[in-house]
Amino acid sequence: MATQTLIDLVVLGALWGASFLFMRVAAPEFGPIPLIAVRVTVAAFILLPLLLRGHGAAPLRKAIGPLLLVGATSTAIPFTLFAFAALSLPAGLSSVLNASVPLFGALVGFLWLRQSPTRLRMVGLAVGFSGVLVLAWPRLLTGADWAPVAAALAAAMLYAVFPHITQRSLAGVSPFVVATGSQTAAAVMLLPLVAFTWPDVAPTPRAWGYALLLGSACTALAYVMYFRLIARAGAATAMTVTYLIPVFGVTWGALLLDERLPPSAIAGALLVLAGVALATWTPRRGTLR
After folding, report:
1. What is the mean pLDDT of the segment spanning 21-33?
2. Residue 286: inside a domain, yes or no?
3. What SS3 state is found at 26?
4. At CB < 8 A and 24+ separation, what contacts does 139-144 make?
5. Rounded distance, CA 158 to CA 169, Å?
6. What is the reported pTM?
7. Is 67 a member of any domain?
8. Which residues lie closer than 8 Å to 36 by C-beta, 6 or more apart?
9. Which one-letter DSSP state was computed for residue 99?
10. How far is CA 238 from CA 6, 17, 56, 106, 245, in A?
11. Across all residues in the chain, what is the average pLDDT?
12. Domain extent at residue 262
């Protein structure tokens, strides 16, 4: 794996792992839809001026249809589902459920794209998923409500679908244009709903701070990196970032929210990292495929 690809995967894992922490704190005060509306609007306000200064509005206009679809499947719907899950699930557990994305990705690749994964990638997926199970098992024993768990898994499924949509419908479009357009499209979809869902009690400054961090660092910056990764390394490699997210999500939750970090988390984290390495490693000729 190229060094830059590995760096991008680790940074994205840290940023998106932190997003579950921020949502866990802010979602109960904002509610799922208002929080995500703030998140994507902040991201759009950061990204749009930069895009218009460098590329102009023409790329957005040319790809408006696909960008609306990517904005819904990559952002508006899954972000809101995870914010709903954050109302009751610990940040660490939400991030662990998010790590099911590559499994859905493999299913999508087989059923939709007729792809046959290499043996090495299958081993990586198996090792990584075993790490996810080790991370999740102590928390799942507490008997989490099925509604937020189902919401998180539905969001993970959408995360597995949209990179393939991006590759097919936005091939050749700049990653920066895709990131900006998708966040702007999500904001357009969600802002009309804010009037009906805004909380009666104003969110605290702490919640606002986390919402702004969600929009700027965990969305604007992270999505540019992610779409660049899709363009450079492909959708399958980009999706393996979800193996790193639970490592950071569980760690941030333990450090900053006092969520209990079980001893098994260390073993699970090591398995997850091993799965990422195997699933994203490109073997030389003559090695295991």
Report:
1. 96
2. no
3. helix
4. 139/90, 139/92, 139/93, 139/96, 140/93, 144/88, 144/89, 144/93
5. 16
6. 0.83
7. yes
8. 76, 79, 80, 83, 186, 190
9. T
10. 10, 15, 27, 13, 12
11. 83
12. 3-280
Count of structural domains within the chain: 1
In a domain, 157, yes or no: yes
Contact between residue 193 and residue 37 where contact means Cβ atoms under 8 Å apart: yes
The answer to whether 228 touches 54, Cβ cutoff 8 Å, is: no
Integer Cα distance of 230 and 223 in angstroms: 10
User: How many alpha carbons fall within 13 Å on the CB side of residue 289?
Assistant: 6
- Region 149-162: mean pLDDT is 86
Residue with tokens 């249809």: 65
* Within a domain: 287: no
Locate the DSSP E strands across 137-258: none
Tens-digit pLDDT profile for residues 217-240: 999 998 888 878 887 888 777 777
120 sits in which H/E element: helix 119-140
C-alpha–C-alpha distance, residues 162 and 75, integer Å: 10
Q: Residues 219, 84, 110, 167: is their CA dihedral positive or negative?
A: negative
Amino acid type, 7: I
Give dist(CA 232, CA 238) in Å, integer: 9
